[in-house]
Write a structure and sequence with these properties.
The chain is built from 7 helices and 8 strands. It has a single domain, classed as Metal-dependent hydrolases (TIM Barrel). The chain has 248 residues and is of the alpha/beta class. It starts with a strand and ends in a 13-residue tail after the last helix. 29% of the residues lie in helices and 14% in strands. Strands 1, 2, 3, 4, 5, 6, 7 and 8 form an 8-stranded mixed beta sheet that branches. Helix 3 runs parallel beside helix 4 and helix 4 crosses helix 5. Its cofactor is Zn(2+). One of its GO terms (molecular function) is zinc ion binding. Keywords: Hydrolase, Metal-binding, Zinc. It comes from Vibrio marinisediminis. Pfam families: PHP.
Length: 248
């Protein structure tokens, strides 16, 4: 399975990453990506950029180093009501909104509360994908959440960093189960390196291996072509991006 879009990457603006967007795009071009989602942390994460950072992504060129730039954010799921730390007016400036649990923002709780939060963030209609769901600190009812994601066309991330053993240790077992059940339900999958340094951009080998293990249909992996990714955004109700018209 060939992946040409990395939907989860960070720049030094996140406060704990080490590369610029130009360095990330240069690495993406060298590694054969067509589209790069820049998804710095939303404001509630310690060290994250402020409110205006996300509005001002409109100044980013649509191509850097010949790689298409998708303006995005990794928002924080804040509570069981499914609220995220992104102002409603910010949405118009962004193409791609992920939501994830992070321990400094959402204190790990019970499986029932994690499940409630995920279901409500999906139902809010404000997020396009759920990030690194394998984290063992945030156990949830996988079938309940994935059926809701399927109903609302929210993608499920297979996070490569979670499968390396370097972060969110113990995620691999949960990620395996998420992909297995996700295939049965027919969810959309996305793939993210979760790169915090430019050389990790497009490092998606572990994610691809897991998707291949369960013989996931490439048509359900939205990162296998620019067209699949951009048309998924249309399915989510996003506007066409004129600069990428040749890929629709």
């Amino acid at each position: 399975m060939e992946i040409v879009v990395d939907t989860h990457t960070h720049t030094l603006a996140s406060g704990h990453a080490y590369s610029t967007i130009i360095e990330n795009a240069t690495a993406a071009q060298r590694k054969g990506l067509k589209l790069l989602c820049t998804t710095d942390h939303a404001p509630k994460m310690p060290g994250a950029p402020h409110y205006w950072f996300f509005h001002n992504q409109i100044v980013l060129p649509r191509f850097i180093s010949e790689v298409g730039i998708i303006r995005g954010v990794e928002a924080n799921t804040l509570n069981t009501e499914g609220e995220i730390d992104l102002f409603d007016e910010s949405h118009q400036y962004l193409d791609w909104i992920m939501a994830s649990f992070h321990e400094p923002v959402f204190k790990p709780s019970t499986e029932a509360e994690h499940t409630e939060a995920l279901v409500n963030v999906i139902k809010s209609g404000k997020v396009d994908a759920l990030g690194h769901l394998g984290n063992p600190n945030f156990k949830f009812n996988i079938e309940t959440v994935l059926r809701c994601a399927k109903q609302h066309n929210v993608a499920i991330e297979v996070n490569n960093s979670s499968l390396t053993g370097r972060s969110r240790i113990g995620s691999d077992i949960n990620c395996d189960e998420i992909v297995r059940i996700g295939k049965e339900i027919g969810v959309y999958f996305t793939t993210g390196s979760d790169a915090h340094f430019c050389e990790d951009i497009a490092n998606l080998g572990h994610a691809v291996e897991l998707l291949n293990k369960y013989d996931i249909d490439p048509e359900l992996v939205i990162t296998t072509s620019p067209s699949r990714f951009l048309n998924f955004l249309l399915l989510r109700g996003k506007k066409r991006i004129a600069e990428f018209e040749h890929w629709y």
